[in-house]
Specification:
It is a single chain. This protein has about 170 residues and is low in regular secondary structure. The protein has no helix or strand.
Length: about 170
């Protein structure tokens, strides 16, 4: 078939279909469902835009950058599976971030801003929790505070208010 061709009705192909050249294959005039084969589908090397509400099942693999714009949501909340990110640096926008459920943070982690915890925080192992880079005030809870069984050093001017008890020698 050569030249501009318009077809109405159903067209079935019983063998391979191929296209060459720079002409467009335009299905934009159709309001019907666009179906592909049940086998693997490859969409060329050019940009691909998906617009409108989109539902996907199965595994999606991206071999190049993925970008989003606008105010639409990217919602993974319907999944009970593991959410994995790349092995490179990960930046989560400038808005509020809420993490619920048991959370493990491993490796060297740097955080700027305020972090609020609404449940218990625990640490294990021999790694350090290092606040020495901060020049701000270090606040604890208003309840009783226990600092481990190791030596404790307090340097600089110190003010104690209330009752101070020592259970060992003070030097």
């Amino acid at each position: 078939i050569s030249g501009a061709t318009t077809h109405s009705g159903t067209t079935k192909f019983s063998a391979a279909v191929s296209a060459s050249g720079t002409s467009n294959i335009d299905f934009s005039g159709s309001g019907g469902t666009f179906l592909t084969s049940t086998g693997a589908v490859t969409i060329g090397t050019g940009d691909v835009t998906i617009s409108g509400a989109t539902t996907h099942s199965g595994t999606t693999k991206f071999s190049a950058a993925v970008s989003a714009s606008g105010t639409s949501n990217i919602d993974f909340s319907g999944s009970g599976g593991t959410f994995l990110t790349s092995t490179g640096a990960v930046t989560i926008g400038t808005g509020d971030v809420t993490i619920s459920g048991a959370t493990t943070i491993s490796g060297a982690t740097t955080h700027s801003g305020t972090t609020k915890f609404s449940a218990a925080v625990s640490a294990s192992g021999t790694s350090n929790i290092d606040f020495s880079g901060s020049g701000g005030t270090f606040l604890t809870s208003t309840g009783a505070v226990t600092i481990g069984t190791g030596d404790v050093t307090i340097s600089g001017a110190t003010t104690h208010s209330g009752t101070t008890k020592f259970s060992a020698a003070v030097s």
